[in-house]
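User: Can you predict the 3D structure for this chain?
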Amino acid sequence: TSFTPSLKHGNGKRGLAYSNNTYTDYFAVTGQNSRVSWAYNYFSLPDTNYGGLNPALTFIPMLFNDNPILTNVFAANVNASIANYGSDAILSFNEPDSCFGGSACMTVNASVAAYKANIQPFAGKVLLGATAVTNGGPPGSLTYLANFIGNCTGCTIDFVPIHWYASPYNIAYFEQYIAQAYNVSGGRPLWVTEWGMDQDYYDPDVQTFLKASMAFLDNTTYVQRYAYFGAYAGELKTNDFGTGLLINNAGTGLSAEGVIFNNYTGP
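Assistant: Here is the predicted structure, written as structure tokens:
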């Protein structure tokens, strides 16, 4: 599927993984030379709490998993997102290959069935994204992705989202994994919808890694969009995301990493 970003500014690639609408207001502000142009919040509509979504950003709905609480409202929410927030794509299940907290925890068969029932009906209206797998290794990760693509017969899959976490020093592994994912995708474009330092590491040079990885993603033609994890403040520190979040601890503005993500364009 050909893809021309219908985005409001920026290079069309850079976006936010976020939970609180307020945090989106710190990006894409006039005079920042911002590169950020889209956002997703793991749900199918922007949360109405804490104000509205920054109108400079295109919202991308997600179907987190196949829970009926989510599937029952999904179609109506996507249509509302298209009408009100310029949505041009859908993200499907979040880390179905994993059963940790915050993961969809679905078998391949369940993912295929839910995709056909809920995602496929929007084919031709917006771009459809495959399941977003982790880089945790077989039987999950790219093995799960290959099985999903292979078993989703008759499915429209316009792009493939992936996640990656490891030591931020290991830029070579990051670049290698992106290339491997592209091969598994069958030549489909990639969206890197989460990446960052491993939660078990603390690295004072995370900014160096962020710049290097963004330069790679910007220059890799088959990467359509990407979102570093994430546009969160200090509330995630208890979950061992000790550094690299894009919002400062107080939640009142961008962190040093957030400034880099917002407008960094390379050396």
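Residues 1-10, 237-242 have pLDDT under 50 and may be disordered. The radius of gyration is 17 Å.
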